[in-house]
Amino acid sequence: MSEKATEIANLLSPTVESLGLELLGVEYLPAPGGATLRLYIDVPLVEQPERMVNVDDCERVSREVSAQLDVEDPISGNYTLEVSSPGVDRPLFTLDQFARHTGESAKIVLKLAQEGRRRFQGQIVRIEPEADAVVFAVDGKDVQIGFDNIDKARIVPDWVALGLAPQKPNKPGPKKPGHDKKKPSNESAAGKPRAE
């Protein structure tokens, strides 16, 4: 998260928790016409998977947070407030969230290139707390990435495990012996005189 997003998350987290929810993270996207402030909320871990965030939860958080933002005024200028569940491709904002999803695949965008790249996709292997880093299995090798260098990260859904994988089209089977003969063309029929 950016410095501004972290500041806003620290301000709003107690309000979201008072509603029985968890603030996973904040995206603050400044733009000339007005910024976008996007909050990702979820139910506490102890209530998962029996309960999921619903539209009513998002509306309640939006009302409470909007009132708080009007009073505290941490954003100068116009902005749009969005409150969302994390979805199946949930964003990851903290080392604890990476730890919760160890073994899952994630897409990562870095602030500064590492090994000549800024984008990685790999399995979350482990957290290195003393190094403040996350280790990913990428292209068959472990890559350690400093947490402070991660700009964005999202879980890559396992569509097969979710039962939502698209059906693969049936491929034609192997040809049976003797079925590779050419069919007669119309040329041989064209050379014969027609019966009248």
UniProtKB/TrEMBL annotation:
The keyword Translocase does not apply. InterPro entries: Ribosome_maturation_RimP (IPR003728), RimP_C (IPR028998), RimP_C_sf (IPR036847), RimP_N (IPR028989), RimP_N_sf (IPR035956). CDD domains: YlxS_C. Residues 12-89 form the Ribosome maturation factor RimP N-terminal domain. Belongs to the RimP family. HAMAP family: RimP. Required for maturation of 30S ribosomal subunits. This is Ribosome maturation factor RimP. It comes from Xanthomonas melonis. The lineage of its organism: Bacteria, Pseudomonadati, Pseudomonadota, Gammaproteobacteria, Lysobacterales.
